[in-house]
Design brief:
Length: 307
Amino acid sequence: MSKKILLAVVGPTAIGKTALGIRLAKHFDTDILSADSRQFFKEMEIGTAVPSYEELNEVHHHFIQHKSIFEPYSVGDFEKEAINLLDDVFQKKDIAVMVGGSGLYVDAVVSGLDEFPEVDPKIREQLNQQLEEEGLESLQKELNQRDPEYYKTVDLDNPHRLIRALEVCLATDKPYSSFLNRPKAERSFKAFYIGIEAPREMIYERINTRVDLMMDAGLLDEAKKLYPHKELNALQTVGYKELFEYIEVQCTLEFAVSEIKKNTRRFAKRQLTWLRKNEAILWVPYNAEPKKVLQMVTDRLKTNFYA
């Protein structure tokens, strides 16, 4: 092969990406890179569905709980570290596996980040003030007006992402999405996307079940420990924000859990919207026989990569 191959396992949350990634990594005798931005932080375990101790021991994983919520860590930082790690892995292996539900982070490794213009820091200050005074909904509405295309795919519950998009819109008077998907840097490897799909009803059922299991595993206690740091960017995520509101006696526990399920379902929908734009993804059913999936992957590799 003239190039190494990165197998990128993608799909909506709770669909089974971890299990498929491990299966592929064991089959090809290689490492796994996590591209799930929620799983980077060591203080967040239950609410991020970090692979179990047994799963982590089956295959060598990277970028799992390797940072603290108190450390600034951007998609740009991840891109650089992941590329450096892949250079090392590809010294010994022809194939590496990347698993993640964060489409932006996966795409950053595969094809590099988009370049954006410089933004006056005052614009960000104004948007942060708007968030504090008018709430998250005001940012959501403004982004929908200025860039409806990006509005459809962004995590609307993540104020950092909303502010980043809006500051570019305000600084350039152009949609944030107009700066996306421009020609990017060449990579020393080829990427092969493998997506896991299921009927929407099944995805939602799996999400609801996962949230219940998280609560049984102690997610509320985890949220209580993290509550004093709730303003940190890492904690602006589904599963924690809703429980913070319960801790502040803004709602009942039952309502908070129902909100976690609802917001996770919305997140899954946005994940699929992002992924459906990628026509190169090999989609496999969530309940397909493992041997059949491996055969599908092997056949595609032979056809598109080994030929």
